[in-house]
Amino acid sequence: MMVLIDIETTGIRASRDRIIEIAALKVLDGHVVDQWASLINPECRLPSTITQLTGIDDASLEQAACFSDIANSLFVWLEGNELIAHNARFDYSFLRNEFKRAGLNYRARMLCTLRLSRQLDPSQGQHNLAALLNRYQISTPAQHRATHDVQSLWALWQCWESSLPPEQWQALLDAQRRQRSLPAQLDPKRVEQIPNCPGVYLFYGHNQLPLYVGKSVNLRDRVMSHFQGDHQDDREMRLAQQVQHIEWEETAGDLGAQLREAQLIKTLMPIMNRRLRKQRRLYAWYWPKSEQQPRLINGEAISNAHTESIFGLFRSTRDAKNTLGKIAEEHQLCRQVLGLEKGRGRCFAHQLGKCRGACCQQETLGAHEQRAKQALAQQQLNHWPWSGPIAIYEAHQKSRWPAYHLVSQWRYLGTIKKLEEADSLDTQNVSFDMDTYQLLNRFLRDPQRHGLEIKELPDQR
User: Fold this and answer.
1) Is residue 278 part of a domain?
2) Rounded distance, CA 24 to CA 144, Å?
3) Which enzyme class, named as a word (predicted)?
4) More confident residue, 178 or 58
């Protein structure tokens, strides 16, 4: 037995918005044997846009039952039946979340008529319910009311079924059931091509808008995971609704996937990637042996400086100065000598007993510098332990080829399959990146544990 269902809601976020109307038809052997129709009090005010769309207002829901009041009876009515809906992921996600709030774990097989329409007539650009009703000349009293929409859906279903031989119709339904976790707008054949190996994947929306970049050591499993738990997560639901196309790149392993992911996110700026987005200008304290106080540097200066003389990475000069100021206070360092304040002679902090007197010769400048660098040591960037660039060899058991990742002074220069290809890399404009630095630090602390081999390259590399 199958149940054709349609719902109206207060919004599109399944984990937070609520159902305001449910209509369903229970069908057995091609006949409607039972039906359900009810307004639902969402226990919140309706957005004006929903009222304009559906015609349902707060007054019409005031006397309606809450979902918790009908949850048990609806659960029994639906239990064991296959759900048929247009954009079934949307309806199913809302139902699961509403039942969850009522303490019930609802699960059902589902079949999406939106995806079915795309398979039946792939040459058509529009597959929303309104377009389909117009195409098949099915009349309806109104749209965006659950009762009318589910009746229209049943008429559409009958139209499709009558136009195909029974064997072909059944084969089409069986194929759809095997792909039920996929968003309706994705090409199943394209998804089947995604390999079970390390790499990065890219989700694109309409007009090739980059939505999301991710990485995994198993591309197929990771991509599919986005579409299996989306009813619990608003972000995953939005991603499933908006993704139109998927691309991927295979890598030699986990390190290669993470390096490429960071690179792509900073280049493409996908709208749903929050981490690893292109950084604003970074600042650092630079204190070489030849100078008596640290100075702020940024951009290319960080890339060119020796890491043993760099302390901290900051997103603004204010953050950098505040951090150094706190260290000065904790260790009774002189803000004046550190260059944080202007002046001559005794500083104000010394008068308060918070400075040991490097500003007025009660502490030597050498001793002050030594204490200051010791205090800053916790902020120091890890020293680059090799004499020049290195090639990191990576070969994952599921990858089709090994690769070398070229790195110099914590800067990722690129990936090649053979060392002889190193000259082909354009390394002139590679700047220091904090995310790449942290990523490389994590892997290079113990290369063997990650299955990596390090090969030092000549200095001129």
Assistant:
1) no
2) 14
3) transferase
4) 58
pLDDT, tens digit, 9 for 90 and up, residues 128-162: 999 999 999 998 887 889 999 999 999 999 999 99
Quick one: average pLDDT of 4-10? 97
- The pLDDT assigned to 280 comes to 57
Q: What is the average pLDDT across 65-75? A: 97
Can you give the residue range of the structural domain that contains 329? Answer: 283-379
Structure tokens at 16: 């937070």
How many Å apart are CA 411 and CA 253, to the nearest integer?
A: 19
- The answer to whether residues 56 and 174 belong to one domain is yes
Q: Could you tell me the CA-to-CA distances from 458 to 86, 427, 461 in Å, in that order?
A: 62, 15, 6
Strand 283-286 and strand 245-250: the pairing is unpaired
For residues 302, 306, 312, 318, the Cα torsion angle rounded to the nearest 10 degrees is -40
* Rounded distance between C-alpha atoms, residue 104 and residue 77, angstroms: 14
pLDDT for residue 461 = 43
102 and 221 fall within a common domain: no
Query: To which H or E segment does residue 129 belong?
Result: helix 129-135
Helices 113-120 and 146-162 pack at an angle, to 10 degrees, of 30
User: For residues 116 and 172, is the Cβ–Cβ distance under 8 A?
Assistant: yes
Q: At residue 407, does pLDDT exceed 80?
A: yes
Total tally of structural domains belonging to the chain: 4
Q: How far separated are the first and last CA of the chain, in Å rounded?
A: 69
The residue length of the chain stands at 461
Distance (Å, whole) CA 201 – CA 275: 16
Question: Of all residues in the chain, what percent carry a pLDDT higher than 90?
Answer: 68
| Mean pLDDT for the chain overall | 90
- Compute CA 295 distance to the chain's CA centroid, rounded to the nearest angstrom: 37
Confirm if 227 and 181 have CB atoms less than 8 A apart.
yes
pLDDT above 90: residue 307? no
d(CA 110, CA 24): 14
Structure tokens belonging to residue 233: 């997560």
Residue 336 and residue 207 share a domain: no
pLDDT value at position 369? 93
Under 8 Å between Cβ of 75 and 83: no
